[in-house]
Automatic annotation (TrEMBL):
Family in the record: Belongs to the CRISPR-associated protein Cas6/Cse3/CasE family.
Residues marked Transition state stabilizer (site): 52
Organism for this UniProt entry: Desulfofervidus auxilii
Entry GO MF terms: hydrolase activity, acting on ester bonds; RNA binding
Role noted for this protein: CRISPR (clustered regularly interspaced short palindromic repeat), is an adaptive immune system that provides protection against mobile genetic elements (viruses, transposable elements and conjugative plasmids). CRISPR clusters contain sequences complementary to antecedent mobile elements and target invading nucleic acids. CRISPR clusters are transcribed and processed into CRISPR RNA (crRNA).
The name this protein goes by in its record: CRISPR-associated endoribonuclease
Length: 244
């Protein structure tokens, strides 16, 4: 399920080029304090990993790019998606209590909140990324040093790792095992070089991709990816998509 937040402001919003952490902080600030603390510290566990189980879009609207910052011209829209009703309910309540909020140094107004029902999907769906998709592996050097390798949509491991990521999310959300041979694939359809994005998140360099893709598989798994986001780092603003 997802909510759509429509925003306005008296002046254009000025945000740094890498502002995922600011949008994430804005979302966390709207949550009930107890849920915010639990989500931030514990999340939803899978073995040694902890998932936050929400994703969000880029800030959608008219934007101008300058050397050091983006200028967003209202009206604007932010989409937040999660399979956990407690997260979206808490966000909606927080928004209703806060018709005027601060995003970085910008004052913004909540014009409206739309709650979308859970979508149904067929076996094959063409999608457009609303925030870039990322997936990585940790590589180890001969000296024991670690390095993150981010896969492009044109590499075989891209699909395999996204599928494995979905398997873990499925176990958390439904408390059922999919196994490793369930049907799922993702293929780039329109992903030119300009879709590659380099994002700095709290000092960490992340490589991610926008674009249009075709996904195939179990409709329940596709619906899960719609709610949780595709790939990794969803709660940092990666992997949100819409159906074309």
């Amino acid at each position: 399920m997802r909510i759509e937040i429509n925003l306005s402001a008296e002046t254009p919003l000025i945000l740094p080029k890498s502002h995922n952490h600011l949008l994430q902080g804005f979302i966390y600030s709207l949550l009930d304090p107890l849920l915010r603390k639990r989500l931030h510290k514990e999340g939803y566990p899978y073995e040694k990993r902890r998932f936050k189980l929400f994703t969000f879009s880029r800030l959608l609207g008219k934007v101008k790019m300058f050397k050091e910052y983006f200028q967003f011209n209202p009206p604007l829209k932010l989409i937040i998606s999660s399979p956990k009703d407690e997260i979206l309910q808490s966000l909606a309540e927080g928004l209703l209590k806060s018709p005027e909020v601060i995003l970085s140094k910008n004052t913004v107004y909540i014009d409206s909140i739309n709650v979308a029902a859970r979508s149904s999907f067929n076996h094959k769906v063409t999608i457009k990324m609303l925030s870039p998709i990322t997936i990585r592996s940790t590589l180890y050097g001969a000296d024991g040093s670690k390095k993150s390798y981010y896969y492009s949509p044109f590499e075989k491991e891209f699909c395999r790792l996204i599928k494995e990521n979905l398997r873990k999310k499925y176990k958390i959300v439904f408390n059922k095992n999919l196994g490793h041979d369930f049907e799922f694939s993702i293929k780039p359809q329109k992903v030119p070089p300009s879709c590659e994005k380099i994002i700095i998140y709290k000092g960490t360099v992340i490589k991610a991709w926008m674009g249009i893709y075709e996904i195939k598989g179990n409709p329940e798994v596709i619906a899960l990816s719609y709610d949780t986001g595709l790939g990794a780092k969803n709660s940092q603003g990666f992997g949100c998509w819409e159906k074309l």
